[in-house]
Design goal:
seven-stranded parallel beta sheet; Rossmann fold; globular; alpha/beta; 428 residues
């Protein structure tokens, strides 16, 4: 089959599809991955065809700021600011989805971000489509929506909140969907109407996470399957940068500290917090600079190394004592896969949900939400809180034991192969 995976977002939203795509390609399928231009090297390194999607989720958009609010490159942590930025992103994304679908496409694999647009393409072009989701989105009594901050509202409350969350997404896509349907020559239909139509048809969705972390809810409709994680593709000979290798070999395992694509308004403050907390806890550290621009440049010493470029978690995390991270879905999974305890510092969106899942597994300390850690506490208090969590993560045997047990469980799973088998069943 000629398969198009349409994925939008930051590195963590795209990388798992390189692993899934490479497995599909190895099985004889022709696979293209449509995403943003900045991810083109990632896609091509996996041997997949790259197709361009517009919009850059990392860029601040002035339209995301409300009346009287300044535009900022920092990651929005408030719900309203997050929704405004998401709406601006979806508006741009909708203009380019149709251009990414080649005439010979036989199957669309759609993510949580691209599905509300891809459904219209599938309808207009008469192409089968399947969901390939990294987070659970269907309403359930088992847990509240992943964007609700990890709070449990009881069975009825969780399911009701899930339905409300779906309606919020419908509104978010209204303008982009209207423009896309007009371009495709489709009759008018609201996003809510189209969503209910695909759900009533038991539209298949494959979820690329482990049931160890999120068990398939008993009240999910047919067609919703959990396959296991789709790990990012890495070349067999991939290595860490030599400076990082030298640092790792020079002493006891350090703590990895980084927040991926999460940006901070005050990089200097956040860097000082990280460096001082590591030193108060008496630990060596690797600062993964990322979008937060972490650096130890103002605090020279041989106990902390700043790594400016992205490094594969699959290579780094098995070499560290613990990982401090924002609890994105992919980073949380990578820490479990490596068998290392996490110190969750969730910023926004689904990150508190994954932080709660890691803690429930006994593989993480209690979460230190970024808004409180970075803005509501004084620097001294924040340093004390983070240092205490670092000490707990690196000295509590139970955390290490449970993280390693999770790693053994995940090693026995094969998410891409399970996804391939599911697609073969659907094709038949």
């Amino acid at each position: 089959m000629n398969i198009l995976i349409a994925a939008a977002g930051s590195y963590g939203d795209i990388a798992p599809y390189t692993g899934l795509g490479a497995r599909l390609r190895a099985a004889g399928h022709q696979v293209a991955l449509a995403t943003h231009d900045g991810h083109a090297p990632l896609v091509r390194a996996a041997g997949l065809e790259f197709r361009s999607l517009p919009a850059d989720p990392r860029a601040a958009d002035p339209r995301a700021a409300g009346p009287g609010e300044p535009a900022t490159a920092g990651t929005p942590t408030g719900r309203r600011a997050l929704m405004r930025r998401a709406a601006a992103f979806v508006e741009q994304l909708g203009t380019g989805m149709a251009d990414a679908v080649a005439p010979d496409t036989e199957l669309l694999l759609l993510t949580t971000t691209t599905a509300p647009l891809g459904w219209h393409l599938a309808e207009a072009l008469d192409i089968p489509s399947v969901g390939a989701y990294l987070v659970p989105t269907a309403p359930t009594r088992a847990f509240s929506p992943v964007v609700s901050g990890g709070r449990q509202l009881g069975g009825w409350g969780n399911r009701t909140a899930g339905r409300f969350s779906a309606r919020v997404v419908d509104r978010l896509y209204t303008g982009a969907a209207r423009a896309l349907r007009t371009r495709l020559g489709l009759p008018p239909a609201t996003p809510a109407t189209v969503r209910r139509r695909v759900e009533a048809a038991d539209w298949p969705v494959l979820h690329g996470f482990s049931e160890l972390v999120v068990s398939r809810p008993a009240d999910w409709r047919p067609g919703l399957d959990v396959t296991g994680y789709w790990w990012p593709h890495h070349a067999p000979d991939a290595q860490l940068p030599s400076a990082l290798e030298d640092f790792l070999d020079a002493g006891p395992p350090p703590v990895s500290l980084g927040f991926g694509s999460m940006a901070a308004d005050d990089a200097e403050h956040l860097s000082a917090l990280a460096v001082r907390a590591l030193r108060r806890a008496g630990l060596r550290g690797v600062l993964l600079s990322g979008s937060a621009a972490l650096t130890a440049a103002d605090s020279p010493g041989d106990d902390i190394l700043t790594v400016p470029a992205a490094v594969p978690h699959a290579l780094l995390f098995p070499r560290v004592a613990a990982a401090v991270h924002h609890c994105g879905a992919g980073t949380s999974a990578a820490a479990l896969r490596a068998g290392v305890p996490s110190v969750p510092v969730p910023f926004t969106a689904d990150q508190p949900f994954w932080a709660a899942r890691l803690a429930a597994l006994g593989a993480a300390t209690a979460a230190l939400p970024f808004p409180a850690l970075a803005t509501k506490l004084s620097l001294d208090d924040a340093v004390a809180r983070l240092a205490a969590a670092l000490t707990e993560a690196t000295t509590t045997p139970a955390l290490r034991t449970r993280a390693r047990a999770a790693a053994r469980h995940l090693a026995a799973e094969d998410g891409p192969t399970a996804a391939l088998a599911a697609l073969d069943r659907l094709a038949r």
